Amino acid sequence: MRRIIAFDRVSADGYFAAPDGDLSWAVPDPEHDRGVAERTSADPAPGTLLLGRRTYEMFERFWPHVLREARHDASGTAPDPHADGRRAPELLAMARWIDDATKLVVSRGRAEVTWRNSRLLRDVVPDEIEALKREPGSDIMLFGSGSVASRLAELGLIDEYQLLVAPLLLGGGRPLIAGLSRRVPLALVEATPSRAGNVKLRYVPAR
Fold this sequence. Notes:
Blueprint: E1 4-11, E2 15-17, H1 30-42, E3 48-52, H2 53-70, E4 78-80, E5 83-88, H3 89-100, E6 102-106, E7 118-121, H4 126-134, E8 140-143, H5 146-155, E9 160-166, E10 174-175, E11 186-193, E12 199-205
Helix pairs in contact: 1-3, 2-3
């Protein structure tokens, strides 16, 4: 049974995006990037991503361009989507992993998705999500996608929350999870600080 793991960078006051959607406030974290690259390269199976329309379109604009650029760049690095001018080999590994992954896009508005290995889901339907979790393969990663994350949290379908908490206060913005009709107690699995000042928190639903 695959798990759904919700990952995002959040500010210390709990926002995953500024009010206008800006993400440039995120604090670069080479340690985190290396860890992600090591874990994804160790998994022989292609990944699976679950994305809302807005997050998918941000990924679609950025990561394929990174791979096209890499074909003509001998540095073996890729740019950081959160920090202008920063490049790292781990980010190129991430670009390749995202491109190879199955990308499940929750959208009522898009007529089609053309990025390779992408397919549309018209809504968050519990039975369909449970069926996806029963399919063979690696865990399903949910990046950003606040409306999808909120709906899945409400339904109790997220198996783990991974939050990279940045050392800054935005003072306002978009919360990752909003509009829940009930409290969802969580149990802390891991809290790991990095030299960059970020803290990675891993939670699972408390049973």
